[in-house]
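Rotation project, supervised by the postdoc (A.L.). Task for the rotation student: set up a whole-complex structure prediction and record inputs and outputs verbatim in this book. Inputs entered:
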Amino acid sequence: MQQIGKSQLALLIILFLVGSTPLFELGIKAKQDAWLAMSVAAVAGMLLLAVYVKLQKRAPHVGIADLYKFHFGRYIGGAFTVLTSIWLAYESMRNVRDFGELTTMALLGFTPKWIIMLLILLVSAYTASKGIEVFVRVVQLLFPIVVISYAALIMLVFFSGLVKASRLLPVMENGPMPIVRAVFPDLISFPFGQTIVLLVFLSLVKEKDAVGRVSYKSLAIVSLFLVAMNALVMCVLGPELSELTSLPLLQVVQLVRLANFLERLDIIVTLLLYIGLFVKITTLYIASLFTASAVTGISHRNLVFPIGVLIYAMSFLEPNNTYHIWIGLDITLKVVPLFIVVLPLAMLAVGIRKKYRAEAAGGNGRQQAEN
Amino acid sequence: MRTMRGLLCCLLLLLQTGCWNRVELNDVAIISATGVDWQNGKWVLSYQVVIPKAISSQSGESGSAAVNVFSTTGDNFRIAISKASEETSRRLYFSHNQVVIIGESAARKGMGPLLESYLRNHDSRETVSMFLSKGSARRMLEQLVPLEQIPGAAIQRMIANEEHGSSAFRQMTANDVLMELLGSAQATSIPGLVIAGEGEGTDSVGMLGKTTTPTKVRLSELGLIQGDKLVGWIDDEQSRGLMWLTNHINKTTLSFSCAGGSKSRASSSAKILTASTKLTPEHVDGKWLIKAKVEATGLLMEYNCPGDLSKPAEVEKLERRIEEEIKAVIAEGWEAVRKQGVDVTGFGTLIHKRYPKLWKQASADWKELFPKTELEVEARMKLNSTGMSGRNFKDAQKKAGGG
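Outputs recorded:
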């Protein structure tokens, strides 16, 4: 039985949700109110997390697969588990593809995408094969790098006098509706709804009673950070330009010019992009592995290769970046709420079936038998 | 298994070299300035390429120019750039490009395609400074500048110097231009460059050998851009007034006359050390009134007026006099801009931020409303010091003679 500590859980939540999010100006549909949209989405994300934690409390020792089974029964629950596993692999693949697209777009213009994506996926697959414990230790290692890099970036942007808070005005120019439209379903699905993967990992935390507290705290910290980064980009670029550029944070950093030598800090953004996407890809990959392993009974190490191949193959399905983004925004976003809102709420409403109650409460007997 | 592992490690080593996307220093032509012209229905792009040999300290021989200028032509920017390989041995490298000079013809045609190409490609950076050129941009690139080896860098330093020391113009980076053109009023202003002096220009190193050059590149006039096209120019003093109005004065020297009024000669000057302008829009029966509040501090640099500056009342009078002068400078700039009807003052943006609902109605016919807008300036000047002497020199002479 693999186990992770509560502080490791906190770092995992933070890095996973940070991911590549600050690089983009999410919620730009609400124009200069993007940061308000982010804040609203963060609150909604907190409510969703409360639902997930509540579900987890019902059966503290099991992952999402068994939660489905306890609530919907063996067959329907099994079907949902399979779907969830595929969806998680798909989300992982979207990040792999993002990685390929962003790298070719902004950094290595002439390197073929297949090798870029293969390299990052190999690293992720290797990490995944070592298991969750190794992965969270890697996250612990990466965390200070991320913190220092973001701190340096933010400081330099402020020092170069690029930040003008007046770019956030006028607040709510067209009333609150644009904000609401930006939050649902876009922002709630990405990034905040992605806390659903916690249902895979929470049961692995050693300190069971701290799970809720740690998750809420980490989500609150990461939400504050994401809202602040969103507002920062808006204060530098303004609504029109941040909508126009595909990588607003890179644009911001390219504007930094200090004392005639501190410029071209793109490398920091690249570093953050790579770390963020690596954590995201690997987390979703492992979540997909664990879920698939729970439903098939095959050990997760043996699934690393087939699911890796699946992710890699899927990442070539979209012919170009426009398709990739269009599918992400117009199609995936319509399906995602099923996993992050509908199913959890249904579980909350249905309650655990009678025949699984003892198993859910005890948990241990079954877990040990399985391992 | 062991050998497999060893092999795998060796294979990985091949990937670590990072040779896939390499750019060798001796394969690239580093560009220090770019010029854009519009000629015979085509874009003409000119490049000022740095010759590394000429600027290296060991073999830097005087007698040959440090840069080489050439042009390519095409229906759009990128095709013109790609044609460069037909006449140069190296790949053009834009990451160190410092300035973009847009010829008047190209600016009147429209800067949209240029800005588009800047946004879409990651090798062109938005920190590049933009200039307009009266006449051909290529001609401007060919000019050598005394003191500096690379003219592109020299122009970049010139605008930085102007921005910090005199503030009649400010540095407009591609990013500033983009932001203003995408903003509420879709108008911006870009400083112009001219070749001043007699003669054809300073384009050979031989000419730099003399103590004066026949011509020189200088900043002159501010081009007003509406949409993406150049629509007019305002002169240096008007530009300075505009900088006062838009809060872009860093340090500047303000000259003023003893009595005020336009007839008397401006015989004295004060150095402005800090200046800030706050604008508040107000809506008064269908028209807009912008209230500007200017606060400035400075030092007296030159004083050719009567009056004993050791008396506080006299200094206060002087401060009022300078305030009048600031108002006059601003009024001059404002009238010029108003006549052209191009909102480079940022008033539109200001109204948009303060009165979003009213702006919705105003934005449609802002072009008509803008010239009707009234400006009300209030200035506060504080002289920190009157310098190391008291009364004016001539005054003192007279006193000494009389006594």
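Student's summary: Chain B touches chain A at residues 15, 20-21, 95, 119, 122, 125-127, 173, 175, 178-179, 182-183, 352-354, 356 (CB under 8 Å).
Supervisor addendum: The first helix of chain B runs from residue 2 to 16.
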